[in-house]
Design brief:
The structure is a homodimer of 359-residue chains.
Chain A lengths: L2 H14 L4 E4 L2 H8 L11 E5 L4 E5 L1 H10 L4 E4 L6 H8 L5 E4 L6 H7 L4 E4 L3 H7 L3 H22 L8 H14 L4 E2 L4 E4 L19 E7 L1 E3 L2 E2 L2 E7 L4 H20 L6 H14 L11 E3 L6 E5 L12 E4 L2 E4 L3 E4 L2 E5 L4 E3 L11
Parallel strand pairs in A: 1-5, 3-4, 5-6
Antiparallel strand pairs in A: 1-2, 2-3, 7-10, 8-9, 9-12, 10-11, 13-14, 15-18, 16-17, 18-19
Helix pairs in contact in A: 7-8, 9-10
């Protein structure tokens, strides 16, 4: 990855907008700009980028060795134990005045601590927008993660049994995602069966899946720091008539949206393609979420594929296409692939089959 | 769980401090106050608690069914698709003026959106502090999670093989944590071998563990929404002399700290107990982090067991005790249990053995 080029774009922005420098505290942005690794939810690190192009990453002694070994083109500054991150930033910045920050990530508590030392101004979605357009190497990593998920679900299929619990089923898919090279899960695996499948976010429980229930599996893994995100719905036993029909409608909506994905279509328009298929079959009120979201270092990032996004998609955007139908107390179906917007259309990165599968 | 009693404490605070109500946007606080579930990293929900004691949870249509079925004593308000969360809060609050928020969780972007409608003031660490003292049922859930981890690592031991990769080893422990009833991993599993074990946060890689290397396993799972957090260091092959010595020192430090844990000791003092053992053996500069942290709904919460915490521990605090020694380019050892502070001392919730184990 060309981290220096990414930081160069930040520096251009800083110069053009009269900033002396900027502070990143979001671990995903820090990884994007330096290659310094992070655990999800980790904190206590801050990156300072000056308008002259110097990058300094302030870390605790805990993270020093790994940041030092893995970062590129970045000074690593070790805090002493008990030292305050935001006080050290004052020294690192060399007396900077107007300093940018990411308002979508910085907490009010951190803002209040930093404002004692700096004249703070938001850089808005600067880095979020940069991350929305994937470079070829980033795309390769995402394909690696999606490929690991594809192989894992293929192997999992032979381990699924009618009557197993949701948690047991989750253990199988997670085990295989690991064995296929995943460094970490990309998010908390969802396995939701029967009436629980009407919860789009249903975490696996001790409930057994059987009797023809539709079971939603939503799973992803990280490879080289990038995420996959796949959903398939399997039937545990011969399905009932309505859920078969629902499956066909969701698949039709998903394939219609994938066929329509191309540069220039807005997130709202692409959402509308999937939604109009489902509405046309009379299930519109049961499609209770947007059609998709961007995927990259974070499993949820820009651009959105929903009614709020009036911006056109561009080549290099990587998004999920994941319509679903959720009938309260009855069941649910969701089917999700990850696609990349190309120069003249899109390419589906998820290769695993989408026909109805009965366990 | 007595969610109404917890909310009652919030209401008392609001009345005493002249607030009309407060807004929680942190999913973990929302779970604590309502039982409405969450996925780690999920967003888009907000809880409004009025000083009169009414609780209203605003959710997207995506989360409506699950929040409705699981929450207790809480009105669930469904946003329409495309509707803005913070606009809906205006209506839900019924014209409230002075409204509290959690400054440690709210982002500056969300603050800027909310301040158009409200006269915002931080409630500081109100809910964070409440969460630091566990109720008996919370303790039972944490013990359930720690017990699942204990059983899982016992079963994993027989699946570990000298020469397997860090990722393969991680797949085994995660699989068994699931099979023992875990709803989700509590955090990204760490498996770091040989020189990589000198990274306290080393995520599992394709590196093979062998030749007597010390291998740090740091793992945890969620049960009923509460986390476990355990670290053990195994030797893959007969260990070299120095790491054997380091193991003994870390274990001595860990056991000394556990023996000293009691109500009234500060986080800083308890950290000092472990640190002085390691310093006494000449390894002080290699103990590069604090001794522990609180565990509960979040795997990292208060109170801290480190040099920054001058407050005394109290009965019901649940903290990790996890000293470590990390020698750059050579290796590392960490041993971690979860303990609860009792009326007259502490109780170790982690039962898995701590003697040196050679794979």
């Amino acid at each position: 990855m060309n981290f220096a080029r990414r930081r160069g774009r930040v520096e251009e922005y800083l110069v053009e907008n009269g900033f002396d420098g900027m502070i990143c505290t979001n671990p995903e942005s820090i990884f994007y700009l330096t290659n310094a690794p992070f655990l999800t939810g980790s904190a206590g690190k801050a990156l300072y980028i000056s308008k002259e192009g110097k990058a300094s990453l302030v870390v605790s002694s805990l993270d020093y060795e790994e940041a030092f070994d893995r970062s590129e083109g970045t000074e690593i500054v070790k805090m002493e134990m008990g030292e305050k991150l935001f006080e050290r930033l004052r020294r690192v910045s060399g007396g900077a005045d107007k300093v940018g920050f990411e308002d979508g990530f910085l907490t009010v508590r951190a803002y209040d601590a930093l404002k004692k030392n700096f004249n703070l101004a938001s850089v808005g979605r600067l880095i979020e927008k940069m991350r929305e357009v994937k470079e070829p190497e980033e795309l390769k990593n995402i394909e690696g993660a999606v490929g690991a998920s594809d192989r894992a679900v293929t192997k999992t299929l032979s381990n699924l049994r009618n009557g197993m619990t949701e948690i047991e089923a989750a253990s199988e898919i997670e085990y295989h995602m690991r064995r296929e090279g995943g460094e970490a899960l990309a998010f908390e695996t969802i396995v939701a069966s029967g009436p629980r499948a009407a919860y789009p976010h249903g975490m696996p429980s001790g409930k057994r899946a059987s009797g023809g229930e539709a079971v939603v599996f939503d799973f992803g893994v990280k490879v080289s720091g990038y995420c996959s995100d796949t959903t398939r719905t399997f039937f545990f036993g011969q399905p009932r008539d309505e859920m078969v029909k629902v499956y066909d409608i969701v698949l039709e909506a998903q394939e219609a949206a994938i066929s329509s994905a191309r540069p220039g279509i807005t997130g709202k328009e692409l959402d509308g393609v999937a939604r109009s298929v489902i509405e046309g079959h009379g299930y519109g009120k049961y499609f209770v979420h947007g059609t998709g979201h961007g995927v990259g270092i974070a499993v949820h990032e820009g651009p959105s594929v929903n009614a709020s996004n009036n911006e056109p998609l561009v080549p290099g955007n990587v998004v999920t296409i994941e319509p679903g139908i959720y009938i309260p107390k009855v069941g649910g179906v969701r089917i999700e692939d990850v696609i990349v917007i190309t120069e003249d259309g899109s390419r589906d990165l998820t290769k695993f089959r989408k026909d109805k599968m009965v366990i």
